[in-house]
Amino acid sequence: MHALHSEFIEKLQHSVQEDTFVRLTLSKPGGKERALQNVYVRPVDIKGQRMLSFTLRYATKDSTQNHTPAEAMVIIGLWLGNDFLNGDLYTTAADFFIQYNKKRLPRLSSKAPRLQAAPEAVHNKEKKRLIEASPANVYLPAMGISGADGQVLPTGQKKFRQINKFIEIIDALLQQADLPSTAHIVDMGAGKGYLTFALYDYLVNQLGQTPMVTGIELRQHLVDFCNDLATKAHFSRLQFVAQDINDFQPERIDMLIALHACDTATDLAIAKGIRASAAVIVVAPCCHKQIRKQMRTTSALQSILKHGILEERQAELLTDGIRALLLEANGYKTKVFEFISTEHTSKNLMITAVKSAPNPEALRRVEAIKQQFGIEYHYLEKLLADGY
Description:
The protein has helices at residues 3-17, 69-79, 139-142, 157-176, 194-206, 220-232, 265-275, 289-292, 302-305, 308-329, 361-373, 379-385; strands at residues 21-29, 36-46, 49-58, 62-67, 84-91, 95-100, 106-111, 184-188, 212-216, 238-241, 255-262, 280-286, 332-338, 349-355. By secondary structure, the protein is of the alpha/beta class. α1 (3-17) runs antiparallel to α2 (69-79) and α4 crosses α5.
């Protein structure tokens, strides 16, 4: 067993014994059987005994197991470096990260702790939302999500769930990205700003960070509404600007967000994020006209794509798939997944990208896809080639 492997397990064991343990995440499946995608471990008290609760996340389901600390150390020790190549340990003293390369050799690193207090070790506790509705959150009533008493309104339930899902996604990305506490975060196409306000609230009031958050929105009346609300909420480092994405030229962007930017506006936002070398890029694309106009396939799919609705969906898949590949080619690790269920909107895809190493193979894959479907160019590809 490698010395760094043993050191990581010892740090985990010590944190449990000293009651500084917050949580452990095992990720990046490395074994032959990869149905198990992630494992999340947290402390729980069951009948007065300290246990470690394992949430095993599969592609289609989750399952929970509870183990004594001694049992847990054995299980985690066997999984790390074999079934999982990444281990992230969060404690109130420090955060530790172990990563195994293809030869199963580990690299151990650490950071200052993100959390200053261990979570309440309650078994089967009610799920705690990252953003809570309360009279203190003045932006929620102003946006019609909650009443003045802090209770979420029936008409605001969908938006409130969307807010918490969005913050949950951002929280997971923050654990992967090296984002400074004073990060500049830009939300392009902020609209009425309910997600922007929630993000600022979470980063400042729960994580204790001091980011500068800028919302870009063309409609002046929405910008005025949001700036006035930010003042009332005492969100001093949150501002909204009435400007076109093309014209916005900040000194730096650490995280770029563009949700439901229409058609090639998503590509403009992604290109700005790449050019700024943003640590995190998050987009939820809307409309996919640019690729659909070019598609000319002569393969067996031609008989299927004669149906307009199927051609539209194929264009969406190609547009967003190529976006993800171009992000990977330019040094990002990407994920494409459903953001919110189809009962809310038909445009429910999200692409997240975290700064990583470039993947030159991704460009070759883009060329192969373009040839197969008769696509001349992707707008994001053109923007990057032109140095946008």
